[in-house]
TrEMBL record:
Catalyzes the transfer of the enolpyruvyl moiety of phosphoenolpyruvate (PEP) to the 5-hydroxyl of shikimate-3-phosphate (S3P) to produce enolpyruvyl shikimate-3-phosphate and inorganic phosphate. The keyword Cytoplasm applies. The active site is at E329. It comes from Streptomyces kanamyceticus. The lineage of its organism: Bacteria, Bacillati, Actinomycetota, Actinomycetes, Kitasatosporales. This is 3-phosphoshikimate 1-carboxyvinyltransferase. Its main location: cytoplasm. InterPro entries: Enolpyruvate_Tfrase_dom (IPR001986), Enolpyruvate_Tfrase_sf (IPR036968), EPSP_synthase (IPR006264), EPSP_synthase_CS (IPR023193), RNA3'P_cycl/enolpyr_Trfase_a/b (IPR013792). It is found in: Cytoplasm. Gene3D superfamilies: Enolpyruvate transferase domain. The gene is aroA.
Length: 441
């Protein structure tokens, strides 16, 4: 959050007149789709990606890979079912321009890919992308042998910049401070199998956020044939090693985005209703799976059935004291529910959210308080003391999760208007329709 944005279109957030009962099919995971695209692009043979998420962040990723020469074609999948992308790797080529938008996955995962390309790859994006941390990836790539020009505008190690790909990268050992974003580690590991010496990434610095996302990177690398040593597999703490080697062409079906399931589960919790999310995976590295525990502690109950995850609210919503460092992207939705609870909440471990799509701690504090709430920022999170809220404009600061947080509050508070609900297109373009569909409108 930098300043109060001008009002763009206002969307009257629907108010729930009673308990919500619905089944909501949530589109595919952003984090899985964008990792799968990168890995398939680096593979030695074509692969399939079924039920990919089609949203701003994933279309930017696909567009960037296409610009570097990768084939990404529309298809129906090898068994004839479902929409799919066929990814056909090729020699990565510059010159090319990559628009990262405000996608952390694109701005962090692609510079290492660009270092493998032959020719210059220029990176640019939304103004906010210039402010988001990137230097950990850029400094590491230089140590690993890449030539990068970040001198044209802005600050060193920040966008916009040009990676002068040399067709190969030496790789080897590197130390980084990834306390501002786990995506620095994921970025180096994802391309690591293609570096001449592979890569050894050692995190030095404060606590590393979003560990499930690093596990997702490791699991997906292993599934496509890479050898990865991790702290969990008997290695040193904070050290990951990827052995050089060819990646296989695979057929992967993308799981629903469990973080984007959050507002719908919250709807059941806040209204005392029941929401079913089909295809909820029994085992997953997605951080959104933690919602089963968190929203249960806040007053709901859930069951994993053949129909999917069935989540039921009890009619009461309780506050929570929780460390969200592993699952930071869930913070806006949890804060929204906490603002409607019957007791105070403390959300901890998420200082790095100040450098997400917007400063999420400042934005949540300001917007909930402008509806009559009582939220204060702490060094690493939020204190939320529920108060009776009233209607008003909920600004979103180009942050998809601010928009969905405002919609949750709107279910319980009449007269909430979301400014720029279209920003949900970053990861969930269907949000307004899914939301009104859930409410039976
Ligand atoms: O690797 C990923 O797919 C992500 C990692 C996390 O980033 P940070 O570690 O920067 O919070 C998360 O917040 C983001 O939404 C997606
Ligand atoms: C932090 C997020 O996104 P990004 O991938 O841009 O970091 C998010 O989706 O909550």
């Amino acid at each position: 959050m930098t300043e109060t944005p001008a009002h763009t279109a206002l969307w009257p957030a629907p108010h729930a007149s009673g308990a919500v009962t619905a089944t909501v099919h949530v589109p595919g995971s952003k984090s899985v789709t964008n990792r799968a695209l990168v890995l398939a692009a680096l593979a030695a043979e074509p692969g399939w990606l079924r039920r990919p998420l089609r949203s701003r962040d994933t279309l930017l990723m696909a567009g960037a890979l296409r610009a570097m020469g990768v084939g990404i074609e529309e298809g129906v999948g090898p068994d004839g079912s479902g929409e799919a992308w066929r990814v056909i790797p090729s020699g990565l080529q510059g010159p090319a321009t990559v628009d990262v938008g405000n996608a952390g996955t694109v701005m962090r995962f692609l510079p290492p890919v660009a270092a493998l390309a032959d020719g210059p790859i220029r990176f640019d994006g939304d103004p906010r992308s210039y402010e988001r941390p990137l230097t950990g990836v850029i400094d590491a790539l230089r140590v690993l042998g890449a030539r990068i020009d970040d001198s044209t505008h802005g600050s060193p190690g920040a966008l916009p910049l040009t990676v002068h790909g040399g067709g190969a990268l030496e790789g080897g050992r590197v130390e980084i401070d990834a306390s501002s974003s786990s995506q620095f580690v994921s970025a180096l590991l994802l391309s690591g199998p293609r570096f001449n010496q592979g890569v050894e990434v050692r995190h030095v610095g404060g606590p590393l956020p979003s560990m499930p996302h690093i596990r997702m990177t490791v699991d997906m690398l292993r599934a496509i044939g890479a050898q990865v040593d991790t702290p969990e597999s008997g290695g040193e703490p904070n050290v990951w090693r990827v052995t050089p080697g060819a990646l296989l062409g695979r057929d992967l079906t993308v799981e629903p985005d469990l973080s984007n399931a959050q507002p719908f589960l919250a709807a059941a919790l806040v209204t005392g209703g029941t929401v079913t999310i089909p295809d909820w995976p029994a085992h997953t590295t997605q951080p959104g799976d933690a919602l089963r525990g968190i929203f249960t502690e806040m007053g709901g109950s859930c069951e994993l059935t053949e129909q999917g995850l069935v989540f039921t609210g009890s009619g009461s919503v309780h506050g929570i004291d929780v460390d969200l460092s592993e699952v930071g992207e869930l913070t806006p939705g949890i804060a929204a529910v906490a603002a409607l609870a019957d007791s105070p909440s403390t959300l901890r471990g998420v200082a790095h959210l100040r450098l997400h799509e917007t400063d999420r701690l400042a934005a949540l504090t300001k917007e909930i308080n402008e509806l009559g709430g009582d939220v204060t920022e702490t060094a690493d999170g939020l204190h939320i003391r529920p108060r009776r809220l009233h209607g008003g404009i909920f600004h979103t600061y180009d942050d998809h999760r601010m928009a969905t947080a405002g919609a949750i509050i709107g279910l319980a508070v009449e007269g909430v208007e979301i400014e720029n609900v279209a920003t949900t297109a970053k990861t969930l373009p269907d949000f307004p329709d899914l939301w009104t569909g859930m409410l039976g409108n």
